[in-house]
């Protein structure tokens, strides 16, 4: 009876309000967040199935392997950086055409007539002016005709009945004879085209060098993935043998769990290597493009079976400094400044022009009634000279300082390029030695791993040591791949530093 009473009181008393009463007033009710259930360990069967899928060999190539030459050709013609530089070349060529407009033939026409006033003259005329490309002067020719009467101050408008033919020319004898602003602008624009072409070459060299690095990084990533797949396959193959030995009582069962742990660790390496391969393929797609310039993602079935050979090294790298486009850029700038200096010195000369003109009157006297002779010839000279010549002297000082600055910049750049080439030559030489050491280490590590597996199969070694040997061999293989990659990159960097266009596919 007492038990029934206590049970009834417990059921009648609400538990939640009691807890609420225990909190201070105004305290918010804390909500319990549902925790996710702990992940269940993967069963051995599923673990092995996933590991075998990761350890599966690379797909059989269905297409030809991707070669470096294909990547270099694609980057050369379709890389956006190269296309941008080519667009700048076309822009510079357009500026040359604009400067040629200063030498265009100019045609003009004019008609005048009086509507009111004492005089009733009307005149019409055409004129063609051709600037000289080798002198600051010009040739001109024209025809004009008039009717009616003109005031004395417009007497030049009076022509013969059938008009007047005019031909003449202006020639510069001192200033503007050899150079003037028009010819200077054309020369500077032509040099700008060469500058744009040199800059395009500089951009192309950088793109090709990065293409070599991206391609070989992709190939290395594929081979690194295969190394870890082979390492995982060894652990999977060992699992079956261990299971038989455990079932026969020759090995403790804990070895199966330890090998599964080993499989998981090696599977992680495979997944990480696959991730690196995918990233490398994405990077390579920036240089591998289709005919429309769109990136092409290389697939794993296009991986070549081996690394390519590094680019050949020049016999005397330091003697190839002058092939550098950036040095050529400075040389062009200096040449432009010297052209401007010629124009600045031209301004010091007096402006002395000679002019000659012939007028041929056609027909009898004009309607104004004034007589005309058949031919009229005249010659003139014009002279002008700024006395202080401050514009010319200021521009000469400015341009001379500009030339000095360019020469010092070239000297600094030449020294820097020489130091860079020397450093790259040392790096390339040492990379060959490091690769040889890595190959020797790999051979010995592979021999040790193979021997340790035979000892383990014979029961003369333990599980820990055979795993250690295998992973050391895999690490040696990866270091050999990294050393080969560094050698390829060092050779490519040296080719770019010496502007070896043939090696870079240019």
Structure description:
- The structure is a single chain.
- This protein is 56% helix and 11% strand.
- The chain starts with a helix and ends in a 9-residue tail after the last helix.
- By secondary structure, the chain is of the alpha+beta class.
- β1 (106-113) and β2 (122-131) form a beta hairpin.
- The model is unreliable at 1-35 (pLDDT under 50).
- It has helices at residues 2-12, 15-22, 44-54, 68-78, 80-100, 181-247, 254-284, 325-346, 390-457, 463-497, and strands at 106-113, 122-131, 138-147, 164-172, 351-361, 375-384.
- It is elongated and about 135 Å long.
Write the layout of secondary structure elements.
Elements (H helix, E strand, L loop, with lengths): L1 H11 L2 H8 L21 H11 L13 H11 L1 H21 L5 E8 L8 E10 L6 E10 L16 E9 L8 H67 L6 H31 L40 H22 L4 E11 L13 E10 L5 H68 L5 H35 L9
Antiparallel strand pairs: 1-2, 2-3, 3-4, 4-5, 5-6
The side-by-side strand order for the widest beta sheet comes to 1-2-3-4-5-6
Q: Find the count of extended strands (DSSP E, 2+ residues).
A: 6
Q: Which regions contain 5 or more consecutive residues with pLDDT less than 50?
A: 1-35
CATH topology (level 3) name of the largest domain: Outer membrane efflux proteins (OEP)
């Amino acid at each position: 009876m007492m038990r029934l009473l206590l049970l009834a009181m417990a059921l009648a008393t609400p538990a939640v309000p009691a807890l609420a009463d225990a909190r201070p007033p105004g305290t918010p009710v804390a909500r319990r967040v549902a925790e996710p259930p702990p992940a269940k360990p993967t069963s051995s069967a599923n673990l092995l199935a996933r590991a075998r899928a990761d350890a599966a060999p690379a797909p059989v190539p269905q297409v030809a392997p991707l070669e470096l030459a294909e990547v270099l050709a694609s980057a050369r013609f379709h890389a956006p950086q190269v296309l941008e530089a080519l667009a700048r070349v076309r822009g510079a060529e357009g500026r040359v055409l604009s400067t040629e407009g200063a030498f265009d033939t100019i045609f003009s026409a004019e008609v005048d007539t009086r509507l009111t006033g004492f005089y009733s003259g009307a005149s019409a005329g055409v004129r063609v002016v051709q600037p000289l490309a080798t002198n600051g002067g010009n040739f001109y020719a024209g025809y004009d005709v008039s009717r009616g009467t003109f005031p004395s101050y417009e007497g030049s408008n009076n022509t013969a009945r059938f008009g007047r033919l005019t031909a003449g020319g202006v020639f510069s004898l001192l200033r503007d004879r050899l150079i003037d602003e028009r010819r200077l602008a054309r020369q500077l624009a032509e040099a700008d085209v060469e500058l744009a072409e040199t800059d395009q070459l500089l951009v192309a060299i950088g793109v090709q060098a990065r293409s070599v690095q991206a391609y070989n990084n992709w190939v290395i990533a594929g081979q690194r993935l295969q190394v870890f797949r082979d390492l995982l396959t060894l652990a999977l193959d060992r699992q079956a043998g261990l299971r038989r030995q455990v079932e026969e009582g020759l090995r403790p069962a804990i070895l199966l769990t330890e090998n599964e742990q080993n499989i998981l660790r090696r599977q992680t390496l495979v997944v990480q290597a696959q991730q690196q391969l995918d990233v490398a393929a994405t990077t390579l797609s920036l240089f591998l493009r289709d005919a429309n310039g769109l990136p092409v993602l290389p697939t794993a079935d296009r991986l070549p079976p081996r690394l390519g050979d590094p680019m050949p090294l020049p016999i005397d790298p330091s003697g190839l400094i002058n092939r550098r486009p950036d040095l050529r850029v400075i040389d062009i700038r200096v040449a432009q400044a010297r052209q401007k200096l010629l124009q600045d010195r031209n301004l010091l000369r007096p402006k002395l022009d000679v002019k000659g003109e012939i007028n041929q009157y056609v027909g009898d006297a004009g309607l104004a009634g004034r007589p005309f002779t058949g031919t009229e010839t005249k010659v003139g000279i014009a002279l002008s000279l700024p006395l202080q010549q401050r514009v010319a002297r200021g521009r000469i000082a400015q341009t001379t300082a500009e030339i000095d600055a360019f020469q010092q910049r070239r000297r600094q750049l030449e020294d820097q390029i020489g130091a860079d080439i020397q450093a790259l030559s040392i790096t390339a030489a040492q990379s060959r030695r490091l690769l040889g050491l890595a190959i020797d280490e790999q051979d010995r590590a592979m021999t040790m791993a193979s021997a340790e597996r035979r000892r383990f199969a014979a029961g003369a070694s333990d599980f820990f040591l055979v795993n250690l040997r295998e992973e050391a061999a895999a690490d040696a293989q990866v270091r050999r791949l990294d050393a080969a990659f560094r050698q390829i990159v060092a050779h490519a960097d040296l080719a770019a530093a010496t502007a070896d266009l043939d090696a870079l596919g240019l």
